[in-house]
Amino acid sequence: MGGLDPPIQGRHACRVPSGFVYMLASSRNGTLYIGVTSDLLTRMEQHRRGEGSLFVKRYGVTHLVWFEEYPLYADAIRREAAMKRWKRQWKLALIETHNPQWTDLLETWNQ
User: Residue 111: what pLDDT?
Assistant: First the structure.
């Protein structure tokens, strides 16, 4: 009986993680924070507990005001890096376009 063993389904399957780029705000037009994560809900829980980012904890930047999902985590990292170089007014315009009321999107996540 020669040949290769059949692949084991699921055991060694390679799954490429997706990624989220997100912006947090302390208040409308307040301090902004841009981050990237593979699990937005878990990351938001960490931010709200004051874990994971000294900047977020220090400046109270906990309102999720904008996010984008990318099929590849590497693409999300590239987008985050680019956005961190943006002028503040560009970031504000992006939020205003997609979330003009500056609603905390985490509060409406499952609605």
Answer: 63
What count of other Cβ atoms lies within 10 Å of the Cβ of residue 93?
12
Q: Where are the alpha helices (DSSP H) in 26-72?
A: 40-48, 54-59
Residue 36 lies in a domain: yes
Q: What is the pLDDT of residue 6?
A: 46
DSSP string across 9-30: TTTS------EEEEEEESSTTS
CATH number, residue 87: 3.40.1440.10
Burial 59-89 (b: 16+ CB within 10 A, else e): bebbbbbbbbebeebebbeebbeebeeeeee
Task: Decide: residue 102, CB within 10 A, 0-12 exposed, 13-18 middle, 19+ buried.
Answer: middle
Total domain count for the chain?
Answer: 1
8 A C-beta contact, residue 36 and residue 19: yes
Q: Please check whether residue 35 lies inside any domain of the structure.
A: yes
111 part of a folded domain: no
